[in-house]
Design brief:
The complex is a heterodimer of chains A (438) and B (303).
Chain A: H1 4-31, E1 33-34, H2 36-39, E2 41-50, H3 59-76, E3 82-86, E4 90-96, H4 101-109, E5 114-117, E6 123-125, E7 136-139, E8 146-151, H5 155-166, E9 177-180, H6 188-196, E10 217-220, H7 226-238, E11 243-253, H8 255-308, E12 312-313, H9 315-344, H10 349-381, H11 384-417
Parallel strand pairs in A: 1-12
Antiparallel strand pairs in A: 2-4, 2-11, 3-4, 5-6, 5-9, 7-8, 8-10
Helix pairs in contact in A: 1-8, 1-11, 3-4, 3-7, 8-9, 8-11, 9-10, 9-11, 10-11
Chain B: H1 11-31, E1 35-36, E2 43-49, H2 56-66, E3 72-76, E4 82-87, H3 93-107, E5 112-116, H4 118-146, H5 149-172, E6 176-177, H6 179-209, H7 215-250, H8 256-299
Parallel strand pairs in B: 1-6
Antiparallel strand pairs in B: 2-4, 2-5, 3-4
The chains are: A alpha+beta (438), B alpha+beta (303).
Chain lengths: 438, 303
């Protein structure tokens, strides 16, 4: 007696999954974030060093550095930067999809510490004298040259400074030198020679002071393009970095490389998965078909979970996904082999199915827990791309457990319960001659 | 399975093979060491993608023009349109900017550039070693709790055996070790244990069904358990190997070494769960049985 109702339920459930997968896949595939190894971009690991003597690098300093970096990246207009603090003195920055990598790197690590100095490089004013968010890019009224205007906190202090500069002797040393990121060893006199020789000096500008200025508004007239002036204003507003950043590790991937790696690996994935499907169909017949169904759901489920977790898919991540399919097959194989064994021992299809499911459960459970254990350690100890790999591996194992165990019970169960497969062990890939009498 | 191979009988042969391989591996590691990629050594790597076919001389000339003398160039890709260049010394931010601009202008694509300072590379390797040790410890505890102590020891021995074999073979064939390589080794750690657990699970089950008092009976159970799970072991490893081979042949260049490491690990993983882990457990278990028996014999006269 064949129960057709079970077969109907099977196809209804199948259609429901097909609809779910069909409706969501496009969105998932399009909106899943790709790592910088797949779309181009760069990653830099900075070692944070103190700027001033006696300054200590604490978690607080690291946090404020991350904030400053974040506001700078906003200047770049890159969406979704990844900035993490690592250990006691490191910060990792990952920017995917940056068009101008050179500019971005420069922008990130520059300290943006503006100083006003005299010709002997003595500091007269520094960043702490500037009003927050007071920098703006404008144009000079007479010749339309791009300039940067600043706001000082204290007009009297500026008066003092300009007076001091004005008093300098001999004539011609009444200069206020404006530096961005003055480094120890830089000298105005050296740089001035360069400027006279027609090269670009390291300071931004060096205007003569001809009178005492009691005002809060200061303008910098350097040799800027409008764009340079604008980014200077923005970076000054974003704030100076409280620390010095040294690159200790960096990797950058050209956009073309990323695209190529993505395409190649996805192609490899299709081939690999297709081969696995074929193998399952040939070896396990009807359960093989069920395996192909549950594996398809499994792939969709992983991508969906990854998407919902807002994860970033990296190259090792895709590798883990493809490998995960291979591993997910394992849970199916353990179950089917167990059912085959039960069939060979002479049990009916229904009781072999039940016993096979029950007995394979603990095996699959123990085997998966140990793999998750290893993957969790990998996640805890890995850095960036290895971490991505471990995360996909953990999700894979969980998803494979759910789809293989419960998917098989549901789908294969409906067929078994329909009694259409009764007395047909060949459908499970078992030869009649191998079956022992009970 | 219709054939009847006695796995336990030849156990010493497998032990000898693995011990020999381990000795050879240690020898290579001590003499030749590992060919460390720049992930572990201080240095820089530049990958150039061009729209035209490149030659070694041309790329070297480019780097000389930029002021980098001792660069190593390996051409790759379709029609040699790619070049992988590595050299010692860490590129500064400005040098990277210079390279980016130069090659973008000359060949139309921004290159990929990686630099590492030695401290970071060393830390990575250390962390990986820690990861393997911690994972092993976790697995020992879990298996001892769910199965038994001697199975835990046998399983972890097999696992370390597999991880070591990957490293040894990479040393023998001078394949470059990079960051994804570590991920591959750690994956094998997770995967090989999976294989071993499935076999042990069957041994555990069969041990429950019968009273095992003699060594012959124990050997029979180990053999039977291996035979019963052999179909699954072979099929599973085949499917994963299919996936790994597809990655190796068709995947991106940057995960090639990763796939090679996986393949080696998968093969050894399948081998070790049958020929090492189960046999080790047999040896340990039969010793346990012997010592129990002698204790019983000593205890008997008093009754």
């Amino acid at each position: 007696m064949v129960k057709r109702s079970k077969i109907v339920i099977f196809f209804v459930v199948l259609l429901m999954f097909a609809a779910l997968i069909g409706l969501t896949t496009e969105k998932i595939v399009k909106e899943t974030k790709l790592g910088l190894d797949l779309q181009g971009g760069f990653e830099v690991l900075y070692e944070v060093k103190p700027v001033k003597k006696g300054q200590k690098i604490t978690q607080e300093t690291l946090k404020s550095t991350v904030e400053a970096l974040n506001s700078r990246i906003n200047v770049l207009g890159v969406s979704e930067p990844e900035i993490q603090i690592e250990g006691n003195n490191r910060i990792r920055v990952q920017l995917a999809g940056v068009t101008d990598q050179n500019k971005a790197r420069e922008l990130l690590s520059t300290q943006a510490e503006l100083t006003f100095r005299d010709v002997d490089d003595k500091v007269l004013l520094d960043g702490s004298d500037l009003e927050g968010n007071g920098a703006k890019q404008t144009f000079e009224s007479q010749n339309n040259k791009p300039i940067v205007s600043l706001k000082l906190k204290d007009a009297d202090k500026f008066a003092q400074v300009t007076e001091e500069v004005l008093k300098r002797q001999p004539q011609g040393e009444n200069i206020l030198v404006i530096w961005l990121d003055y480094e120890k060893g830089d000298s105005f006199k050296e740089e001035q020679k360069k400027e006279l020789a027609g090269k670009k000096p390291k300071y931004i500008s060096a205007p003569y002071v001809n009178e005492v200025l009691t005002q809060k508004d200061v303008t910098i007239t350097g040799q800027f393009t409008a764009e340079e002036a604008q980014s200077l204003a923005k970076i000054l507003n974003a704030g100076a970095l409280p620390v010095k950043l040294d690159e200790v590790y960096s990797t950058s991937v050209g956009a073309k490389f990323g695209e190529k790696a993505l395409n190649e690996t996805i192609f490899a994935g299709f081939i690999g998965i297709a081969a696995i499907f074929l193998f399952m169909l040939i070896f396990y017949r009807v359960p093989g078909i069920i395996a192909v169904l549950t594996l398809t759901i499994y792939i969709w489920l992983i991508l969906a979970i990854f998407y919902l977790m807002n994860g970033v898919l990296t190259l090792p991540g895709i590798a883990a996904l493809i490998l995960g399919v291979g591993m997910a097959v394992d849970a199916n194989i353990i179950t089917y082999e167990r059912i085959k064994e039960e069939l060979r021992s002479g049990k009916s299809v229904l009781s072999a199915f039940k016993a096979g499911n029950r007995r394979s459960f603990t095996t699959i459970f123990d085997a998966n827990i140990t793999t998750i254990l290893a993957a969790a350690v990998l996640f805890a100890y890995g850095t960036s791309s290895v971490k991505g790999f471990a995360l996909v591996l953990i999700i894979s194992v969980l998803a494979s457990f759910i789809t293989a165990v419960f998917g098989t019970r549901l789908f294969l169960g409906l067929w078994v319960q329909s009694r259409m497969m009764d007395k047909k062990p060949g459908l499970f890939g078992v030869k009649e001659s191998d079956i022992r009498e009970l | 399975m219709s054939f009847n191979y006695d796995f336990v009988k030849h156990r010493n042969l497998y032990f000898i093979i693995s011990v020999l391989l381990t000795i050879v591996g240690i020898f290579f590691l001590l003499t030749a060491g590992l060919k460390l990629g720049i992930d572990f050594e201080s240095g820089s790597r530049v990958n150039i993608q061009a729209n035209e076919t490149l030659t070694n001389e041309q790329v070297l000339a480019d780097f000389e023009e930029l002021g980098f003398e001792d660069a190593t160039v390996v051409l790759a890709g379709e029609d040699n349109k790619q070049a992988n260049v590595s050299f010692k010394g860490v590129l500064s931010k400005n040098e990277i900017a210079k390279l980016n601009t130069y090659f973008k202008e000359k060949y139309g694509e921004t290159p990929s550039i990686s630099t590492v300072t030695p401290t970071v590379g060393r830390e990575l390797a250390q962390n990986a070693l820690f990861a393997v040790l911690i994972a092993s410890l976790g697995i020992i505890i879990y298996v001892a709790f769910r199965f038994e102590w001697s199975m835990a020891v046998a399983a972890v021995t097999a696992l370390l055996h597999d991880a070591f074999m990957i490293i040894a073979i990479f040393s023998m064939f001078r394949i470059e070790v990079d960051l994804p390589f570590i991920a591959a080794v750690l994956t094998i750690v997770g995967y090989s244990i999976n294989d071993t657990i499935v076999t042990f699970d069957r041994i555990r089950e069969n041990m429950k069904l019968e009273k095992v008092k003699t060594q012959e009976k124990l050997a029979e159970i180990v053999n039977r358990s291996i035979h019963e799970t052999l179909g699954r072991s072979i099929n599973t490893v085949l499917t994963v190997i299919i996936a790994a081979v597809a990655l190796l042949i068709f995947g991106a260049d940057s995960i090639r070494n990763f796939s090679i490491a996986l393949l080696i690990g998968l093969a050894f993983g399948a081998y070790s769960s049958i020929f090492i882990a189960s046999q080790l457990w047999y040896v340990m278990k039969s010793r346990q049985m012997k010592s129990k028996k002698t204790r019983q014999v000593e205890a008997e006269p008093e009754i």
